[in-house]
Design brief:
Helix content is about 25%, strand content about 25%. The protein is built from 17 helices and 34 strands. The strands form 10 sheets. It has a 5-stranded mixed β-barrel. A 5-stranded mixed barrel has the order 8-9-10-12-11. It is globular and about 95 Å long. The N terminus and C terminus are likely disordered.
């Protein structure tokens, strides 16, 4: 992570006070390197006691040294060429395990010299800085690389922006945004060779927005295959190119031989991997058989990534920075180089692989009676898609291994029912592409029992990993999902009151409470509406070393153990298990680090890396979601003008948000197209009501809407009534009645198309 660590004569401080007289080149370099303050022409002259003609000679000497490539900077502050000024402006490049990594905001050496990376030493624990922040800092080159001490945070400058070049009739360039939240284009002051229609990166050329932007990189055709994922990668700053030294280290790790003597041999068991048909890697596989007492013995075999990716290696540092793999319809940005993620670590059929095996004893009622963790060697008997596995069970053609898996799952399902975890229907969109990257189909993934089988086995193994580490008082990276906050529960209760329903806030709030409430709703439209509200009330899950339980799964202790190929959190759990249960492997006979357990730093403090990987997870989720939105918009761009069955998913003062049923494309219905009348917005009830017609629009209702616009670059859709803007939309389904107090929806008269907002004070 650090910059150059080479140290030569120029890094040595003068042995004594400089003698008077014109200094040599080496003396000047030594003084600049040892000075605690910026060393300019004045400071150098004072240090060497120069007067009169000697000052003129010093000026010429410094000019010569600059031309010779020995020093760089201004006459008020010189620094060694290739180095960093003593005081300079830095830009935060990334946050690595809570520590800010920065580069000089202005780097002038030739392109072959990459800017040095400096670790910012901030006061207090963790970083208060964020990616893109600019700081004035004092810098210092140490034996382990550059460090910097922030002096003050500088006013923010706009980050590089991405957009599409547009040229108006006057030949002026404009940068059209690719973010649906941005409404206006920005003038381009310098096209940098870019042409109309190209996707580009640009940066501001001045402090004022009127100064415009200059193009810094041309990325190509924004509608070409793989462009949508490229947009997300650049927008969110996702690392997607592995450094050559990391690739080389991964290739060395891939050649490690497995010690059969120190591993449990499970190659004789018919362990199977059940995955999506388009899975890029396979890091989990399962097996089960009856134990003869009504219960089952089971094994959850997980790729032993910790054997190949060792703490302190370049490979490990890169995996930490990425935090997780990011999955797009057209590509995966893996956490690990492909030689590991898609090959050596991936549990392929009929190939010997290193695994971490979780042995489970499952009672007839689904309780986990005991667990045991071992490093193992496995040979997966089959890798099968969810749909194919389900077909074998449904058609009665499954062999004994699948029959046993389903039988063991039925037991686990009983335990799940006793826990009563939160049951929300969250459909997932799947984009199907052809060999050229063109969209052939977009559909919602079907939820099968095969999905539940794998899910419940994985949950059991994750719980076992957390409890096993707790039993050894070992560090745990928990997967935490806290209960809803009091504020969110109050807001939810206010909303439920509009349906004559309530949530008793005096009792303990459990997932089962939400499940029973949803079960009591017979009207499907109303159920969808309440389900949306319950989902919005939930907190966001995260990683951390202090256990707060998993509310959604109704579990007291939960960790992520089952996906170390694609999640760094799971790799940390594997390393903790290695330490806790003495599963260390013999040291390799090469230059890879010998340990496979937790590093000393992680052992001492898991908070920093937990925060970092929670952040990268949220980044990945946003990038994946936005990319799907763009694919859906591209798919629908040829169907503008068609009418779709839609469901209202949001109600705001300015209009409705609706999603296409069965497809998931989300778009806006502006209030201006709803009709020639005023509309009143009830924020508490999430309703728009027309003053003249009395037509009411509420979340969950179904409408037939015409697709008016579809923008693949932003992923934005816009709808209007089936028979054109201004025509009435007839909501389908039950128009929910509100509990009114007096003239609750009454408002002042206004112009047609305006709305009157009723709700919280702003």
């Amino acid at each position: 992570m650090s910059g150059s660590t080479s140290r030569g004569p120029t890094d040595l401080a003068p042995a004594h006070k400089p003698e008077p007289g014109l200094p040599s080149r080496q003396q000047i370099l030594d003084f600049i390197a040892s000075s605690d303050e910026p060393a300019g022409k004045r400071e150098i002259g004072r240090a060497f006691g120069l007067k009169g003609q000697e000052k003129i000679q010093l000026k010429a000497l410094l000019k010569d040294m600059a031309e010779e490539g020995l020093i760089d900077g201004k006459r008020t502050a010189y620094h060694r060429m290739g180095g960093v000024p003593k005081v300079t402006v830095l830009r935060v490049l990334e946050i690595d395990e809570g520590e800010a990594i920065a580069v000089p905001d202005s780097w002038t050496p030739d392109d072959a010299t990459p800017p040095p990376r400096l670790r910012l030493r901030e006061k207090g624990k963790g970083s208060a800085l964020r990616t893109g922040d600019r700081v004035l800092a004092r810098t210092e080159e140490t034996a382990t690389g550059w460090i910097a001490h922030p002096m003050k945070k500088l006013p923010a400058m706009a980050d590089q922006v991405m957009g599409v070049v547009e040229i108006d009739k006057a030949g002026k360039g404009w940068l059209a945004p690719i973010d649906k939240r941005e409404r206006s284009a920005t003038v381009i002051a310098d096209l940098g060779g870019a042409e109309a229609g190209q996707l580009v990166m640009a940066e501001p050329v001045g402090r004022s927005p009127r100064s415009g932007v200059k193009v810094t990189a041309v990325l190509g055709d924004p509608l070409a295959p793989k462009a949508f994922s490229l947009i997300a990668i650049h927008k969110h700053g996702i690392p997607f190119v592995f450094p050559q030294d990391v690739i080389a280290e991964a290739e060395r790790a891939a050649r490690l031989s497995l010690s059969e003597d120190s591993r449990e041999d499970l190659r004789h068991l018919p362990i199977v991997a059940i995955d999506p048909s388009d899975a890029r890697d396979h890091d989990d596989a399962i097996w089960a058989e009856p134990d003869g007492e009504g219960g089952f013995r089971a094994i959850v075999a997980i790729a032993d990534v910790s054997f190949y990716v060792r703490p302190g290696s370049d490979l490990d540092s890169e995996a930490r920075k990425r935090g997780n793999s990011v999955y797009f319809p057209d590509r995966v940005v893996p956490m690990l180089p492909e030689v590991l993620s898609a090959d050596v670590c991936s549990l392929r059929a009929a190939e010997t692989r290193a695994a971490m095996a979780c042995h489970l004893e499952i009672a007839a009622d689904g309780r986990i009676k005991s667990w045991r963790f071992m490093r193992a060697i496995v040979r997966i008997s089959e890798v099968i898609a969810y749909e194919d596995a389900q077909s074998r069970i449904d058609e009665g053609t499954a062999d004994e291994s699948f029959v046993n898996l389903w039988a063991a799952w039925r037991a686990l399902e009983k335990a799940r029912g006793d826990r009563d975890p939160l049951e929300l229907e969250l459909p997932e969109r799947r984009v199907v592409l052809d060999d050229q990257g063109r969209i052939t189909e977009i559909r919602l993934r079907e939820r099968l029992d095969a999905h539940r089988v794998v899910e419940d086995f994985m949950i059991a193994a994750n719980v076992a990993a957390a409890k096993a580490l707790e039993s050894k008082v070992a560090p745990v990276v928990y997967r935490i999902h806290e209960p809803p906050s009091r504020e969110k529960l109050v807001a939810l209760n206010d909303y439920l009151a509009t349906f004559d329903r309530k949530l008793s806030l005096g009792q303990v709030i459990t997932p089962g409470l939400f499940n029973r409430m949803l079960k009591d709703v017979s009207d499907e439209a109303e159920k969808a509406l309440i389900m949306e509200a319950v989902l919005r009330s939930q907190t966001q899950a995260y990683y951390g070393p202090r256990n707060a339980g998993h509310f959604g799964l109704s579990l007291g202790s939960y960790a992520h153990f089952t996906s170390p190929i694609r999640r760094y959190a799971d790799l940390l759990v594997h390393r903790a298990l290695v330490d806790a249960f003495a599963l260390e492997q013999p040291a390799p006979k090469d230059d890879l680090p010998p340990r496979t357990g937790l590093s000393d730093r992680d052992n001492a403090d898991l908070s920093r890396v937990s925060d970092a990987i929670s952040t990268t997870e949220r980044r990945a989720m946003a990038a994946e979601r936005e990319t799907i939105d763009r694919y859906v918009a591209a798919w629908l761009s040829a169907r503008v003008g068609e009418v779709f069955e839609c469901r209202i998913t949001g109600v705001q003062r300015f209009g409705l948000f609706a999603t296409i049923v069965g497809l998931g494309g989300d778009g806006l219905v502006p209030v201006s197209v709803l009709g020639d009348e005023r509309f009143f917005h009830d924020e508490r009830a999430q309703v728009l009501e027309g003053e003249k017609s009395g037509t009411r629009y509420a979340m969950g209702q179904r409408l037939r809407l015409k697709l008016a616009e579809s923008n693949p670059l932003t992923g934005a859709l816009k709808f209007e009534p089936e028979h054109g803007a201004g025509s009435r939309i007839e909501p389908r389904g039950k128009p929910f009645s509100l509990k009114k107090k007096g003239n609750h929806l009454a408002g002042k008269r206004g112009r047609p198309g305006n709305i009157r907002h009723q709700g919280k004070k702003r």
